[in-house]
Amino acid sequence: MIATVPLVWALLVAQGGTTVPSAPSADSTRPFTFEAFYRVVATHHPVVQQARLLERIADGEVRQARGAFDPTVTGSWDRKTFDGTRYYDYVESALKIPTPLGVDVKLGYERTEGRYFAPDRRTPSGGLLSAGISVPLGQRMLTDERRNALAQARALRDYAVGERAAQVNKFLLTAAKLYGEWYEASRRQQLAREAVSLADFRLRSVRSRVRQGDAAAIDTIEARLEWQRRTVQQLEATVDYRNATIVIEGLLWNERGEPVSLDSLASPSLAGLEAQPIDSTSVARWLTVAEQRHPSVRKVVAKVKQAESERLFAVQQRWIPLAELSYTPIGARDEGLSALGEAAGTTNDAKLGAAFKLPLLALKERGKYASASGKLEQQRYELALVRRDIAISVRTAANDLAALDTLLQLQRQAVQQSRLLRDGEQRKFENGESTLFLVNTRERQVIDEELKRISLEAKYAAARAALAVAIGEPARLPEH
Q1: Closest to 349 measured CA to CA, from 326, 331, 337, 336
Q2: What is the DSSP string of 131-168?
Q3: The pTM of the whole model exceeds 0.85
Q4: Is 187 left (phi over 0), alpha (psi -120 to 50) or beta?
Q5: Closest CA to 36 of 204, 179, 244, 203
Q6: Which of 3, 87, 353, 426 is most buried, by CB atoms within 10 Å?
């Protein structure tokens, strides 16, 4: 594994266009670690930014629902004049203040002038002041259309938070797999370069031994054939690496929403992702976090809140009649607000109102209650299923990570053992006890075992991200 150094933003300096990195040598690269790549993508990529807009839209819906509680000022003026006579002149204004408790406070002023007007609209010359309240007595005491709409909007915002996290989850898992492919392509290219260099050195050595009479001429053909085979593999690995680099570069954006180019010396590194044993304590901690923060849980919990709010509203309509009482003391404007205080608590100078409504069969209300109750029960079952599925996903991802850890340890041992066999065959060849064909065979086995190890390391990076996604925290890798 390549040694790590702190990532510098020089790797992400914007350039004028996309530059395909050339194949850097191992001793002239700057590691771009998986964790650093993961952070950059999780912070600046347009897909992540677009997902965040879901919360902004939901915040707008909540603000819109709160608008039902905005105090409102109304005013009107109505005058009729005919043949030089002013029939009437009505002036009305009011301030209405809704409250979260369902009680509405109303302040008003009205003035009537003219020769012909409705008797019930008569006021003192200076106008009439009023201040009163409207109180629900049956339905709308616990909740009403405005409070229900606000509760629905808040639940929708919680749903948007979960949906944003779900989209980021899915995208970051894809990005992690692409980084693993980039890492694998880079290591394959490096291994192919070393194999070609070794084959070239052996070809020159065999030619020298043939000229000196220490080896058969056919060994030259064997050595050249192996060099050609490895050269083809190097060309294929170089193309794969360049294509993987272009894909990785396409995932890099800065905080201004602009694509950035990858430093030509940047190379993938899994430093910081060293495998460590996974114990039951870690799994239990991850399960707790997943049950609380996983986006799928958040989304279903939001649906449960919506269903609970809807059923509460339906309960009122099903069992409680609609009744409302309004009381508004009134007084002449010339007497000031003191007149309202004197009128309060009496019926002498006041407006009183009451309304009552009770459906006899309540078919609509009963149907709405049954529908809301069914939806709530459905969402509760869905929540239980989602939590169960998430627990399974976390345990499965942890098992995969632990299995890859074990496989990596075994594969590293296989690489060491294959190298010992290759070195032994090489010594036998130098002593004239083996053939170049067997040496090449042993070396191919070393290359195959190295490729398996590289593939497992790339899978380990993707599995680490898969565990983060299963836990529900896509922007933070799980810590051992």
Answers
A1: 331
A2: EEEEEESBTBSS--HHHHHHHHHHHHHHHHHHHHHHHH
A3: no
A4: alpha
A5: 179
A6: 426
CB of 474 within 8 A of CB of 168?
Answer: yes
Contact call for residues 263 and 11 (beta carbons, < 8 A): yes
Report pLDDT for 23: 42
| Alpha-carbon gap, residue 352 to 327, rounded angstroms | 5
Which residue stretches of the chain have pLDDT < 50?
A: 1-26, 478-480
What whole-number distance in Å separates Cα of residue 205 and Cα of residue 195? 15
Orientation of helix 280-293 relative to helix 436-471, angle to 10°: 50
Query: Which helix (H) or strand (E) covers residue 185, if one does?
Result: helix 145-212
Residue 117 confidence (pLDDT): 82
Helix (H), strand (E) counts: the chain? 9, 8
CA pair distance 151, 144, nearest whole angstrom: 10
Nearest of 138, 137, 117, 238 to residue 187 by alpha carbon: 238
The secondary structure of 320-359 as a DSSP string is: S-EEEEEEEEEEEGGG-HHHHHHHTT-SSSEEEEEEEE--
Instruction: Enter the tokens of residue 76.
Output: 């009107």
Q: Which helix (H) or strand (E) segment is 119 a member of?
A: none
- Distance between first and last Cα of the chain: 19
Torsion of CA 367, 371, 376, 377, to 10 degrees: 100
pLDDT in tens, 441-468: 888 899 899 999 999 988 888 888 888 8
What is the distance between the alpha carbons of residues 93 and 75, in angstroms, rounded to a whole number?
4
3-state secondary structure of 110: strand
